[in-house]
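> forwarded from #structure-qc
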């Protein structure tokens, strides 16, 4: 397939790889710039990563947190979209290479491919644990968990073998949010399965630290444990998972948890695409960038989001959260627009920390601001709801999410409790092993397992 040339004219072509938080913000900010923009992504939609866990636990449906990329940019006359999987970049020829042999020429390249799950070399984790990175992951996990209840209903003796036990690996925001949401889903399923002793269902949160939410204030971490305990969650802190198999996990302290569902929320690394580019990398496989987010020696190439090795004044890598990617996307758009108009384009990126928050479930959340303000309980939970609604793309999504949350709250119910995927092996309900081929993802959670957006 011949390369896809830039459109006729003198305006530079900006190719943005990845339509996640950072990529889509960069594209939107370039809507009125004197450039031609091309978005390349393997999916035709943008997903709101922070609420992916709610799809997995039947709180929301897929179309509540997704928006077609073409719909987002439809009013931008200078923007086009290309559905494709980026596998490499020829920096000398200034060409993006696609799976299947296609290619795209660029004048300016913005790499925003997101991140991928890292299993830290834990035996069996990739084969038997569920990640939560993409829409397919969420639907597969939801189907799998519901199928476990169906299996237990058909044969209650399976409960003793861990069929209703879920192990959540990783005590970051995603691990905490998943743990609380699964416990609430279990209460709803008790009404769907009146003849099944759903009280025997277990959710066990495993983390090597002594409490969840590393980086939060001690009192917020203590509140999180207490709130999850009230919901019926169990904990195994101070130990790591050593091995995952079809029937559960072995822990480094010698313990064993029998469980047919293991959710991996323990961390991320840069998207595998980064490894194929031959660029200098730093911790987590991130690309080394300068203060402007350019690749050193390549002034026409930017990297943003979870794949960018950008750091603060103290040399600490910026956290892999949505607000970092959003602010980086807007920053790069300003530099590109300035360069296109002939102005200086060497402004360094500075991250403005807007705070962090995590929900534990109904009426329970934690909030921590850079000013020192800390909040727990109902008010923090309402704040979490409002922040996530504001950051959703599109009026339809905001309306749908608000309606579903209101329904869930008033009725204490859940919506799409649907089994939509087939099990690959009837003898072992589990997901298929995911390919490790380079991919272009739309968004990804930070180290610690969450894509929790900062307040703003």
């Amino acid at each position: 397939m011949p390369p896809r040339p830039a459109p006729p004219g003198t305006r530079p072509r900006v190719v943005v790889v990845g339509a996640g938080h950072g990529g889509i913000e960069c594209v939107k900010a370039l809507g009125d710039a004197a450039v031609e923009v091309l978005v390349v992504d393997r999916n035709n939609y943008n997903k709101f990563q922070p609420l992916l866990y709610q799809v997995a636990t039947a709180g929301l449906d897929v179309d509540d947190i997704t928006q077609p990329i073409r719909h987002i940019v439809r009013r931008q006359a200078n923007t086009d979209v290309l559905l494709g999987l980026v596998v490499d970049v020829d920096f000398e020829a200034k060409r993006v290479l696609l799976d299947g042999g296609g290619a795209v020429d660029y004048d300016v390249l913005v790499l925003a491919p997101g991140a991928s799950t890292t299993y830290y070399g834990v035996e069996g984790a990739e084969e038997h644990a569920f990640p939560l990175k993409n829409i397919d992951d969420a639907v597969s996990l939801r189907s799998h968990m519901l199928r476990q209840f169906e299996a237990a209903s058909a044969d209650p003796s399976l409960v003793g073998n861990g069929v209703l036990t879920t192990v959540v690996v990783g005590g970051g925001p995603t691990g905490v949010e998943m743990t609380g949401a699964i416990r609430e889903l279990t209460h709803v399923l008790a009404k769907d399965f009146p003849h099944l002793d759903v009280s025997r269902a277990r959710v066990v949160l495993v983390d090597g630290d002594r409490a969840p939410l590393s980086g939060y204030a001690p009192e917020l971490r203590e509140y999180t444990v207490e709130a999850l305990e009230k919901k019926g969650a169990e904990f195994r802190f101070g130990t790591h998972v050593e091995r995952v198999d079809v029937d559960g996990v072995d822990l480094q302290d010698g313990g064993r948890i029998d469980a047919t569902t293991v959710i991996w929320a323990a961390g991320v690394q840069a998207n595998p695409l980064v490894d194929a580019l031959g660029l200098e990398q730093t911790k987590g496989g991130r690309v080394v960038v300068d203060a402007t987010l350019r690749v050193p020696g390549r002034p026409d190439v930017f990297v943003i989001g979870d794949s960018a090795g950008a750091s603060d004044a103290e040399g600490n890598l910026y956290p892999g959260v949505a607000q970092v990617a959003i602010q980086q996307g807007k920053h790069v758009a300003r530099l590109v627009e300035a360069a296109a108009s002939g102005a200086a384009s060497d402004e360094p990126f500075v991250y403005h920390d807007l705070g962090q928050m995590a929900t534990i479930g109904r009426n329970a959340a934690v909030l921590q601001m850079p000013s020192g303000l800390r909040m727990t309980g109902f008010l923090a939970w309402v704040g979490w709801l409002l922040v996530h609604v504001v950051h959703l793309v599109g009026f339809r999504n905001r309306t749908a999410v608000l309606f579903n949350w209101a329904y869930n709250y008033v009725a204490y119910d859940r919506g799409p409790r649907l089994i939509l995927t087939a099990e690959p092996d009837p003898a072992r309900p589990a997901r298929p092993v995911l390919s490790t081929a380079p991919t272009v993802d739309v968004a990804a959670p930070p180290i610690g397992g969450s894509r929790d957006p900062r307040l703003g």
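QC bot note: The first helix runs from residue 21 to 29. The CA atoms of residues 88 and 97 lie 5 Å apart.
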